[in-house]
């Protein structure tokens, strides 16, 4: 039996097929633009830090809490140790959801009716506005703590010593980044960067920071100390293609628009994780009409989490002026 139509529904003057086909064609561009929209997302995507996961209640990541030291040297028939100490633990990250609506009111619908080209232009403009809004929302959420509930972990929290995910860094000291109070860049900035680099590095050839994030203001202060010794680059991946960069010990330095004032982060992107739900990676829903509004609405959706599996390899400099 056919489902009876809603006698109170307001008739649409836009073909649903046209609208939803336009959205479907737009989805590919949306996800490409999303991961090129700001320095953090781009670095995470290009550094293979993005991990696509097929749903689940939460994300559980195995961690190395302490180094293993159960082997040794032996000769002939010496008895060998056949036990292994427990050096592992786990951290849990909660999924978080981000959305942005694409709304067409009935007034807009009627003002653009009668011409399919005008309708498509309207939908395209609405999509662009929502796209820019969710990109900015994501950049802000990934850069700095936001007071609202159900928010992503951010770079400032990851490069810190307090609670991250399910582990309290204040209690489990292995779960702490290096945090250094800096000051006037002209007098101590380079010294603090050098000291911090060695503090979070493993050796001259292993476990070194891969990227440095900071503000535009601090980036300019660093630039003043380098010119004309350094070149500004917008080259390949090593310089985070598409963004103006400088380098420190060969590490690209980039600036973001939402990073907190006076901060610099020196991170190893091999230990940053952007977990993404395989079915909710900047997707768009179909347009629907709420029962109590004369609008048609679709949503851009993203579901994921941001974290690390080795907090000790990250550094934060604070109070740079």
Estimated structural class: alpha+beta
Summarize the biggest pleated sheet.
6 strands, mixed
**Helix count, DSSP H or I runs of 4 or more residues:** 7
Strand ordering within the main sheet: 7-14-11-8-10-9
What percentage of residues falls in helices of 4 or more residues? 25-40%
CATH class: Alpha Beta
How big a fraction of the residues is strand?
25-35%
Total domains, how many?
Answer: 1
3D shape? globular
| Rg (CA only) | 25 Å
Mean pLDDT: 87
Give the CATH architecture.
Alpha-Beta Complex
Write a concise keyword list for the protein shown above.
alpha+beta, phage-related protein like fold, 14 strands
What report would you give on this structure?
The chain has 321 residues and is of the alpha+beta class. It has one domain: phage-related protein like fold, CATH 3.90.1690. It is 29% helix and 25% strand. The N and C termini lie far apart (72 Å).
């Amino acid at each position: 039996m056919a489902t009876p139509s809603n006698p109170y529904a307001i008739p649409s003057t836009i073909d649903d097929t046209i609208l939803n086909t336009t959205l479907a064609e737009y989805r590919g561009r949306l996800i490409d633009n999303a991961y090129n929209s700001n320095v953090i997302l781009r670095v995470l995507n290009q550094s293979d830090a993005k991990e696509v996961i097929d749903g689940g209640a939460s994300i559980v990541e195995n961690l190395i809490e302490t180094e293993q030291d159960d082997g040794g040297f032996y000769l002939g028939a010496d008895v060998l140790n056949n036990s292994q100490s427990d050096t592992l633990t786990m951290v849990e990250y909660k999924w978080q959801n981000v959305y942005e609506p694409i709304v067409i009111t009935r007034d807009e619908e009627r003002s653009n009716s009668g011409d399919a080209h005008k309708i498509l232009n309207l939908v395209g403009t609405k999509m662009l506005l929502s796209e820019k809004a969710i990109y900015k929302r994501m950049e802000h959420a990934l850069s700095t703590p936001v007071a609202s509930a159900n928010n992503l972990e951010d770079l400032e929290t990851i490069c810190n010593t307090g609670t991250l995910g399910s582990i309290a860094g204040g209690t489990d000291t292995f779960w702490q980044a290096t945090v250094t109070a800096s000051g006037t860049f002209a007098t101590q900035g380079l010294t603090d960067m050098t000291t911090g680099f060695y503090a979070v590095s493993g050796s001259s050839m292993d476990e070194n920071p891969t990227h440095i994030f900071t503000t535009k203001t601090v980036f300019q202060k660093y630039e003043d100390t380098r010119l004309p010794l350094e070149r500004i680059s917008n080259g390949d991946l090593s310089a985070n293609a598409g963004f103006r960069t400088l380098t420190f010990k060969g590490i690209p330095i980039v600036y973001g628009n939402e990073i907190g004032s006076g901060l610099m982060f020196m991170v190893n992107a091999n230990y940053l994780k952007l977990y993404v739900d395989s079915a909710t990676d900047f997707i768009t829903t179909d347009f629907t009409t709420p029962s109590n509004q004369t609008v048609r609405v679709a949503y851009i959706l993203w579901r994921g989490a941001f974290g690390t599996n080795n907090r000790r390899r990250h550094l934060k400099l604070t109070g740079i002026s």
